[in-house]
Amino acid sequence: MFVICRYNFKLSELIERLQRPAQGWRVAGDDGYCCFSVQPCKGWTVIMLNPYEVSLMQEKCHPGYEEAAHLLNTYNPNGVVENAQGVNFFSGLSGRKLRYVPFNGAVGERQRKWLQEEVRKAVDRDDRMIVLTHLPLDARAASFGTMCWDGEEVMKILHEDGFGRVVAVFAGHMHKGGYCVDGEGVHHVTLQSPLTHSECFGYVDVLSDRLELHGHGGLVSQTMPFPPLQRVPSTRALSARST
Question: Would 38 be classed as within a structural domain?
Answer without folding.
Answer: yes
